[in-house]
Each structure stands twice: as C-alpha cells, then as structure tokens.
Amino acid sequence: MLKKAIWPAVLCVCFSAALSAAAPQSVAQGVLDRLFATNGNYQFKKPKLAISTKNNKGGAVYEPWRNTIYLDQQTYDICRSFGPDSLSALAFILGHELVHAYQAELKTGHGSSNFLAYTQNYGSDVRLEKSADIQGLFNAQLSGYQAIKVMPEVIEAVYNAYGLAGKALPGYPSLSERKASTAEVLTIAQNLLDIFTSSNYLAVIGKYQLAITGYEHILQYYQGIELYNNLGVANVLLAQQYWNPPTDKFIYPLEVDWYTKIAQAISRGEQSLDPALEPFRLDCLEKAAKNFRTAIRLNPGYLPAHTNLVSTLNLMGKPVEALKYAELHLLKPISGKKRYRGPKHDLEMAEIAVGITYALYPGGMRKKEAETLFQRLTGSEYVASALYARQNLNSLRHTQSENVLADLTLPDAFRQTLAAMQLPRTSNLERQPLDENSTVFFAKKRERESAAYVFSNDRGANEVTFLRFQNRHLKGAPILSGTQDLSAVAYRNLLAARDGFYLHAKADHAIIKVDSKGGVLEMVKYVVH
Fold first, then answer.
1. Domain count of the fold of the chain
2. What is the DSSP string of 376-390?
C-alpha cells in the first residue's frame, strides 16, 4: 500500500497528466485499478466502479452490499477542471472511497460511505472519514499521483459545486470543519511519507533497528505490501550483521520498495557464525519471513516479496526448502506460461535468488546451473543485476568475501555538490514519537529545494540527520555501470530497490538513489551523531 509512489520522495514515476477526453468510465477505472494495485491488498475483491449521471451520490459513495464505488459525473467534471492535476484530484476522491471498502467497521455495519456526508443516514463517522482521507492520500501518493498537492482545492471545489459552502446541514461537516480536518490529514499523510522515505535511508546506512521502528509506526496507519516487504528486508539486514560465511558470502537480491540491500557489520573472517549469536540472527530472519509472507498474502503476485522470502530461507540454511518454494513462485513467473509482466529488473532479481539457491544446494548438485545463470546475467542492461551476478559468480568460484564495508569513491562532481549541501539547524524542531514507549522521535524541516529528517532519542539527543536534495544538475548522470570492477566488499554498500538501487558512500556521508540503468535520481547527505 504505501507504495510506491511513495515518492515524490520515493516514487519513480509521478502522474501529472490531465484527464483526457476519453469516456469518464474508462479513465476513472484506470485510476481505480492503479490505486488498487498499489494498495496491494488482494484479500478483498476490487470494488466495481459506476459513473452516476444523476449526480445524486454526494460526490462519491461506496456501497458495500454492491461492492461498488459510485462517482457523480459532476465530481468527475470537477476533477477534470484541475487540468494537469486532474488525475491526482480524481485519485484522491477514489482513493478515499477505496479505503472505505477495506474498513472492517464499514463492512460489518453495511453502511454506505459518502464523500461529503459524515453522519447523515450513513454508517460512517468523523474518525472513519479522517482515516479514509489519510490512507487514501497515502495510497494515491504511493501510486504516483500528487494528491497531497491538490486535496485542499478539491475539497473546496466539491463543496462549492454541491452548494454546501457556508451552510450548516445535519450530517455534513461545514467547509471550515472539513478544511481543518484536511489540514490535519495533510500533516499526517506527509509525515508518513517522510518517515517512509527516511526509514529507507536508515536501512541504507545500516541503522536497521531505527528503520524497523519507522516502518512499524507507519503500519499503525497504513498496512501495505511495501511496508511489510521493507520491514522484512530490514530484519534480514539486521540478521546479517551476525555474519555467517557459508551463506552470507553471496550478494542477495533483497529489494525494498523505494522502495533495499546493503551492508553488514564488520567481521573478523570467521569461518562460521558464533553459536552465541545464532539465536538472535534466526529470530530476525523468522520475523523477516513472517513479514514477507504477510505481503504475499495481501498480494500473491508481488514478486519482490517472493524473491526476498527465497533469500531469507537460504540465509536460514534451508536451500532445499528455498528451491521448492522458488520452483512454485519464482521459476513460473520467470519462464512459465504465466510470465511476470512487471519490471524486467524484478525478474532478474528473482533469477539471482534462484542462482544462489542452486549454489547453496547440498552436495554441489546444482552448482553448474548457478554458474550458467550468473554468467548470463553479468551481461544484463540493468546495473544492479549485472553487478550482483558478477560478484555472486566470484563467490561461487570461491573468491573470498569478507563482511567489511569498503567505500565506493564518488566522482569529483558529486563530491563537490555534496560538500556544498549544508545541514540546517534542527534544535527547535517539533519532535514526534514513533514507538509506544517514546524512545525514538522523528522531526523534519522543509525548505524550497530540500528537506531535513531527524531521528532522536528520549534524551533529546539527535541520532541521525538526513538532508534530502533534488539535484537538477547531476540528475540522470551515470555513477555506476554494470561492467564496473568492484571489490567484493564494495557490494555491501549497495542496496537493491525495485527500479534501481541505493548507493552508500560512507566517506562522503552520502546516499545516492540510482535508477536501473545507473543514472542518479537523488542525493542525500547524512550525519550520524
């Protein structure tokens, strides 16, 4: 759910296209389909969509007994009036009603929702409506729509069109009340997006426990597949701090949903895991497997979670079980009749997971298959796939790989840009607790072209500060190629993502977000206090 568009910060693709002259039904259906796919909760049947030309549905309404969202033609036309932001406006309204389809209270109570009314002849209330606004906004943003940007104007335009502005009617919040609610919703939704983004950054620099706290906080508001996936990845990476050479010598295609794969802590070259550390490592891996299985239950077609689960089983020392699972859930999407239609990069990450499974299979019975697979993928057009395949081929041929972080040297142009990025003062920012015991706090400071995110403890001391910067001068510039000859340990500074990867340049205190072809998308500077 938290998807993937997460972002403005996390999203690769943003939709600014306007509603076309195509039939309202087909356009609105396309938006709803994308929202449903991003939400990823396939345990519920997708609601049907109908356009009401009678304009008697209060803007939009979800009727559970028909499992149908009705959208007034008038509301559709209002959205269309937003020009370049029209799809985002429509995504906010449909996203709001889609959340109602998931709300357990609504389903058991069999009451309709209504975009304008809170209580008039309906089973909804202010709490549910706010929840629908928050989760609907979040889902729309993850889907690539700029819903946060247009929400206030959409609310006002709909109220004016339906003659509710300046009126006090039973069951309908006044426009001023709805605006106040909107301000609160926008604050919460933007905070969730910022926490999601910065939790990904925490995973990149090795602050896995803080990342887990961030993801778990978001789950209180939004239960999406990418959250469970990223939470699982963070637990795997936390487990890999306790280095187990027989399995951890390979570079696993663990993927976050910008979206994660990096490093482990320093090892002294032991040949096996210290038995005293094994219970903690296993506990982290079991938590990870549980999170991946939850994501898969929500959406059985979510390939990264299947890939990550196979990697987790291998790290648990269960390659036979991993192969059985891979044969059912990875090999079919890779080469079966029902071939996966998502990004090719996802398929190659799945293949790498299968290759590692072959490599770890008892008795070396599948080693040749692993070698053939890795050799083929070294020629991939996708940088992360080619790099991972090359290093795993080296590991298969017994090239030593220690669990030590080796720095990746950034080109001078990037280092100069990073040096010019100045972290702002953060001493007086409002802090928000992220956990039940109020031991971890989050704060942020937004400026025109940058954003600072701060994680602190219960003593008020900062632990990590990030400065996120959209660099227009270096955006898209290549920083890493698939044919680059990296040392084995340098790979521990790469963290795979669905459409690319994160690169951790520790010496420069920087995180570089890179697309699948090696072009820079974003630069982040950080300080560990």
1. 3
2. HHTT-SSHHHHHHHH
